[in-house]
Amino acid sequence: MNASTLGLWSRPDLRAAVAAEDWGTVLRTYRKAAGLSQTKAGELIGLVQPDVSDIERGRRRVTSVEVRQRIIDGLGIPPELHTSAEPSAPSPVASLVLPGPGPDDDLLSRLTSATQARVKVDVPTLDWLDRLLAEHRSAEDRIGSRPMVGVMRQQLTTVVDLYGSARGSLADRVVRLASEHAQFLAWMAQDQAQTPAALAWYDRSHEWALEAGDANMAATTLSMKAHMAWSGGRGDRAVRLAEAARWSAPGASLGVQGMAAQMAARGHALNRDGDDARRLLDEAQGLITRASERPEDEPVWMYFYGETWFELQRGMIAMHLHDWSTAVNHLTVGLAALEPTYLRDRTWYGSCLAHAYAGAGESASALLTALPLIPDAATIGRPHSWNELHKTAAVLIRAGAKEGRQLVDALTPFD
User: Fold this and answer.
1) Residue 359 and residue 19: Cα distance in Å, rounded?
2) Which of 80, 85, 324, 397 could lock 404 by a disulfide, CB 3.0 to 4.6 Å apart?
3) Is residue 199 classed exposed, middle or buried when 0-12, 13-18 and 19+ CB atoms within 10 A define those classes?
4) Each residue of 271-330: pLDDT tens digit?
5) DSSP-derived secondary structure letter, 412
6) Given 3-state DSSP classes, what are the helix, strand and coil percentages for the chain, each rounded to the nearest 5?
7) pLDDT tops 90 at residue 217
């Protein structure tokens, strides 16, 4: 049920409860006004009915950032009601100072208007920075984004400091390298559900990519913003951004075009448009298969696209379409082929597999899949994998399966 169409968030009692971060009152008032049971409200926010009851009665306080964000996203609380209560969430407007994980004005001005050489720049230095960025991308697959953010911000500062002494093609390359760093920082902010910071970094990356004439990165930033829309449940926006990635950068490589096509497929799947979703995913797979014949034409950040990745995406699309058995099959095959070094992805897709088992009514398999994932989901998998395991528990409890409560009991010590 859409809170905005009901006008619920214009109610003074709800607005005051959000401002006070009284989540028990928010849940109870919203639920009663919308005519929802505690079970249905729990489905919206990825919590089981007993947890909703405990929060409403004041027996459980919402201290987790992830649970707070699930309530905000699940109930559709307008940003103007809650962003002021969350000082860590910076503004997405690029011209403003963005504290915390977002870019700042000084960084932009130093790159776009630096005139005094500080650090000597040459081809070997830029080659080394390219290799270092590739190593950091690989490390993030293994250990997650949280330990990497400070390192990457410092590394971007190093890149920006090179701009003053760069000339000609070297200057273009510095801007391109800065764009790649900003895109990686955007992805890490997105991985931590820091949406305003992620949008700001993607916008900064896109601007620098255009300045450097880098069609591949310009298209990639739009595709990744489509990924953010998909992650937030906004299928139409995901499709629009993915289509923009395709038409706005006609010089992009086949692989980058394939990335945009698969993001459009995800958006259609969210909208339960299975035919367009499958058609576009087939098109994306064809493009990336062709791209694999000339890997030298592809940007380095396309390293993870391949047959295994597409198997997993078919599983995700099947989940959106509630074709649970098909989702289980694709996710099982994809996970079996996924390299062990992709620890974060193994945790995410494993959590999705647990959810798919629960949706298919295979409660024992859902619990067996979920339990070993909990330690990694609680560390490198927050908030996305962690939320997915909570959703799995909610599905199991709604089906009356004892495994649902068992999963909740296993998750609770880490909440």
Assistant:
1) 36
2) 397
3) buried
4) 989 899 999 989 998 998 898 888 888 888 887 777 888 899 899 999 999 999 999 999
5) G
6) 75, 0, 25
7) yes
**Exposed e or buried b for every residue in 38-55, given b needs 16+ CB within 10 A?**
bbebbbbbbbbbbbbbeb
Token pair of 325 as six digits: 């058995």
Mean pLDDT of 107-120: 49
The single-letter code of the amino acid at 356 is A
pLDDT in the model for residue 34: 86
**Contact at 8 Å (CB) between 285 and 335?**
no
What pLDDT is recorded for position 91? 32
Alpha-carbon gap, residue 187 to 80, rounded angstroms: 24
Which one, of 152, 265, 255, lies nearest residue 205 by Cα? 152
DSSP assignment string, 279-307: HHHHHHHHHHHHHTT-GGGS-GGGTT-SH
> Rounded distance, CA 379 to CA 297, Å?
36
CA distance 61 to 67: 10
Structural element, H or E, at residue 209 = helix 195-212
pLDDT winner (highest mean) among 66-75, 94-103, 290-299, 362-371 = 362-371
Sign of the dihedral through C-alpha 253, 320, 39, 391:
negative
Nearest to 256 by CA among 225, 224, 298: 298
CA distance 105 to 228: 24
pLDDT tens digit sequence for 167-183: 888 888 999 999 999 99
Q: What is the pLDDT of residues 374-392, one digit of tens each?
A: 999 998 888 889 989 998 9
Separation of alpha carbons 360 and 401, rounded Å: 12
Contact status, residue 144 vs residue 378, Cβ threshold 8 Å: no
First to last CA, the chain: 27
Tokens of 108: 């932009």
Cis peptide before 383 (omega within 30 of 0): yes
pLDDT value at 107 more than 60? no
